[in-house]
Amino acid sequence: MIRRVRPLHLLAVLLGAGAVMPAGAAAQPADFPLPPADGSPLPADVVVRTGEGQAVYTDRAGRVLYGMDMRTVLRWSPDAAQYCTRDCRKTWEPLRAPKGSVPNIRFPADGLPRTAPGYVLPQAAPDWTIIAGPDGPQWVYKGWHMVYVRRGADSRSTVHDGADDRTWNTLKYIPPRPRLTVPPSVATRFIAGAYRLTDTDGRLLFTGPCTAPCRWAPFPAPLASAGVGEWSVERSGDTAQWAHRNQPVFVADHADPASLPAGAHPLQP
Amino acid sequence: MTSLKTTTLTLLTGLAGLAAGFAAVTPGEPGTVIAQSSPELPPPPANGELGFVVEEFAPPVVQGKEACPDGTVPKLKEAYLASLPEAERARLALKENEPEFTRRWQATAVGPGNTNICSQPDRFRRPLLRTVQSPTAQGLDLDRGAGGESCEHGEFTSPAGETGIDNQEYRVMGCTLEWRGKDGIAGDIASGLRQFHASGEWTQVLLLRGIDSFDRDDDVEVIYANTADRPPADAKGRFLPGASFTVSNSGPRHRNVLKGRINKGVLTTEPTTIVLAQTWGQGGARDLRGSRSRYTFNQGRLRLVFRPDGRLEGLLGGYRPAFEVIQSPAIGGVGAATTAGIDCAGMLATLLHYADGVRDRKTGKCTAVSSAMRVVAIPAFVNDLPAATGASAR
Amino acid sequence: MIKLRHPTLALGLACAAALGTVWAAKPLDAAPAAQRAIAPAGPDWRIVGMRRLTEAQYRNTIADIFGTDIRVAGRFEPIVRPAHELIASGARAASISPAGLEQFDAMARQIAAQVFDPAHRDQFVVCPGGSGATPDRACLRPTLDRLGRLLFRRPLSPDEGAFYADLADRAATAGGSVDRGLELALAAMLVSPHFLYVIERAEPDPAAPGRFRLDNPSRAARLSFTLWNTTPHAALLDAAAAGELTDPARLRAMAGQMVASPRFASGIRAFFADMLLFERFDELAKDPLVFPYFNPAVAQALPEQMLLTITDHLLTRDGDYRELFTTRQTWMNRPLAALYQVPVSRSQGWVRYEFPEGSDRAGLLGQAGFLAMYSHSGRSSPTLRGRAVRELLMCQPVPNPPGNVNFTAVQDIANRAMPTARIRLDAHNTDPVCAGCHAITDPIGLTLERFDGIGARRTRENDAPIDVSGSIDGKLFEGAAGLGQALAESRDTATCVASRALEYATGKPVDDSARVDALTDRFAARNHRIRQLFLDVVTMPEAYAVDAAPLSGTATRSRRR
């Protein structure tokens, strides 16, 4: 007898997908917001390459580090950490952790206990952890990305970013967020290669000589504020206005440093 | 009171009319369509541009008992029960043996090394699924002129009598409960896709440029793209005509540029790869709002009819990679198998068995299934930023 | 009865009760207990008015004083609008019920807790040793004196300062921290009548012996709340402290700066929201079956589109007030654009939009906000629209319908025999009892019939063509554009906005038609520029002259009769 269960195919998928690995924040694909480095020390073999374009991690030989997003290879390998063998190994070379390193992370596959002594969860992992890879201990970046370099002539380039349907993504470097003493209405955002100060909606803050009639929007301060750190309150105008190191601060209506008015200097930490 | 009643009545009449329209003028009967719609169409817009937002995007299922005479595809649980001797079946059917029964049928969904039939469908060997038995299906004739690319396959005839219809995806999936539904009620795929489509996660828009005539125009550019803008809808979830949408020039969405022509009120596009966004789940695996996947229509093409009320209605056809068809339960993993009872491995095997497109160069086997989606689009304003900035199409 | 659990609430209620007693029974300045709590002034000063802060004024004040990141959550007891008057006038007679006070108390606690939380406290606590000093009890008085001056819009009296410092000190002892003490004292200030009401005080007018005028702090508050809809800024408080605002030249200079500031837009928004009864948007409901384009996003956008049009035309473009009824310039966002069936390029936010020439969408009356507001939930209403034009834009009150009217004909919108509103109203008006008033409203409202009950465009109703001819005071015209033109040419619209502006500033309806006429003449002479009108209104000496009689319950109520 066939009982009508109403197995909501799509609903089940929703639930299933939600339950398996909830961790979008550590995405490295280029089309999603990148989390900054957490400031933990880099593995000895890893350096940051800055210069033109997006800064990336490389090995000491200048080969670009790629993360293999373990969440994308499940179909082929229930233990995603063991995915890259044979043909894959011919293309990608693991960034090995020092011999004798003890793994402290593993892929949370179906059926495995979520936590185990000595292991961190990927979603709560520091930047650099070690997993038991097919070739022994191997570095993992931000919990989900097993670290590799591309073999061959273009190993120093980033051309393979996003390869295989975003399985392979360059490890992009965003400096650790600076710790500042700022008013609560000030935020720090990484925009166009540098940290900038913005309001809490992400609009750029800037200083500069605003000539009369000044059309720049003052960055409002609380009338009652006595200032904080290098920030003081300028009260002579229509609006109480923040001043940074005694320079009146203005707020743009956008987040594009290139579109600031002439003479304006974006505030940077 | 009076006014409300009347409105409801009008509405119902309208719906009935709509339904009748769908039944009478199915997308697969070009002859009727052309004769009906062309004379009533308004003159083309002065600037030659028409925008639309896609309201319906779901596989068309031809209802009727002859399609699946043995019923829908058994769920994992039922399939397991059917595989047992009768006495054992009776024993397991007893209430007190339910835990044992559940343990045993669910064990068929998992394998060694933490594998399961939905996350790793290639690792399991499952019998082929029941397929559609009737010769009738909606779809397009995809292999006319495709040369030796296709693999051997049966063809359908459309409800309106058009022959040579290729729709192996329907052949395989058309008897699953999710597609067919039950007792004349559309399956979950229809309602589910409608919900997803209304969610704004992957709204589709169409922008037609260079329309000179609805009667005959050999050169129409068709932008078929995703937008991040959510369509406004009425209280019943129907999209409202005349809303504005933006096709981003930076977002991770898809934008297909198709070459089209209009003949007697029917728009067709030349075959090319059409890719459209799809996300499954919410806050899932690796993305911000769900697991990203996509629709890939190899040798994809549209055939859409201009309706006098401003709608565009018809089919999108092409060859979809077999795995893409089961992407949703595959992402669902073991839960899709043990909760929804979906036999992902059986589905994939059956899809590959009936695959009729995109030959693998090494093996020579086909890897994709002919497929069709019913598309209904309503008038909208489409702001195509990539065109405005001259960015190249993807 | 409310249970008095919290000291702050108890305090608030006590203040309110004291005030209420005084207010109801005898002049405020005659009550020694109350007088002690109020800042000193000259020997003859007196309280002549109390105007409750509106919700927007309260929110703006908190944002200005403590920052926009301080959350204000709670329900504000509404200020009742007297018939045919502004809420600004209602504010003069607005009391606070025990339940309303409880709400204010909850908000006050919440605000105070945020102000002195670890993320914010450092910038608000001032200590004798400078801001770097470890907070101790020596910080209480300077911190609270500073906040008190901003919240009460005048310096605290020594008694008040001592009272709040002592309250903080006791709470600090009980709560074990200076912050806790400050928090409680701040919460107490926030439920004080001196914060919740703008208290207008009069002093003897040296130029006119025996007469009184508003004192400096009261003038500062009037300028600020009228022009910017918020609490006085630092320069204004300083000017008041220096006694400059009783000097007509200084007053005019200050007001001139304020109407030139971008912040004047907030004041203009608040004024028109009051004049055009925007509080009704909160309750706007439409039948979703009849009007599928109406949804929460549209409901939210309707008043905003009108306000953007108003501030853009009157301030950004410095336009003629009368052209508000004819302009094709407006603003659009995505939800509204669907209703208007026009394209909008941006996914988020507002963009400028100009209706095409020849479009019947002219001015404020062609906007969906006005059209939807003055309609029923399932159909348009020429009568409501015409009445709104008369009452809101021309200040001509229209009588309410008698209680026994038979509305069957107008409500039967599906009747094929009477397909249009015009035909239905004609049928209705065969009753002479109705016809008199409808003659005042309908010839105006029928010109807007090409817009349905949510302001979407239509050319036919029940398949019948819509006739949009109409008239106003004998002048014939067609459609919304014709109506807009007629209003632009009518002196009544200019007179109306001028009298409303004066009422808005003073909180009293104006019954002196000569004064309104003179004001309208000056408005006309300045090409109907709204900045000039408001500059006039907040600087006219008559508006600051007050009755010698001090405020009393009797006096307050007598005006209401």
Automatic annotation (TrEMBL), chain A:
Q: Recite the UniProt keywords alphabetically.
A: Signal
Q: Does the keyword Signal apply?
A: yes
The signal peptide here is 1-25
Does Signal count among this protein's keywords? Answer: yes
UniProt protein name: Lipoprotein
Gene source species:
Novosphingobium piscinae
Automatic annotation (TrEMBL), chain B:
Q: Does the record bear Signal in its keywords? A: yes
In this chain, composition skew of type Basic and acidic residues spans 141-155
Which UniProt keywords are given for this protein, alphabetically ordered?
Answer: Signal
| Domain of life assignment | Bacteria
Region annotated Disordered sits at 138-164
Annotated signal sequence is: 1-19
Entry protein name: Uncharacterized protein
Q: Which organism is it from?
A: Novosphingobium piscinae
Taxonomy of origin reads:
Bacteria, Pseudomonadati, Pseudomonadota, Alphaproteobacteria, Sphingomonadales
From TrEMBL, chain C:
Sequence ranges assigned to domain DUF1588 in this UniProt record: 361-461
**Signal peptide start-end:** 1-24
Record's keyword annotation contains Chaperone: no
Q: Which UniProt keywords apply?
A: Signal
Please state every residue range assigned to the domain named DUF1595. 139-200
Looking at the record, the residues that make up the DUF1592 domain are: 218-342
| Entries under InterPro entries matching the protein | DUF1585, DUF1587, DUF1588, DUF1592, DUF1595
Q: Name one Pfam family in it.
A: PSD3
Enumerate the spans annotated as DUF1587 domain: 51-116
Domain DUF1585 stretches: 473-539
Protein name (Swiss-Prot/TrEMBL): DUF1592 domain-containing protein
- Originating organism: Novosphingobium piscinae
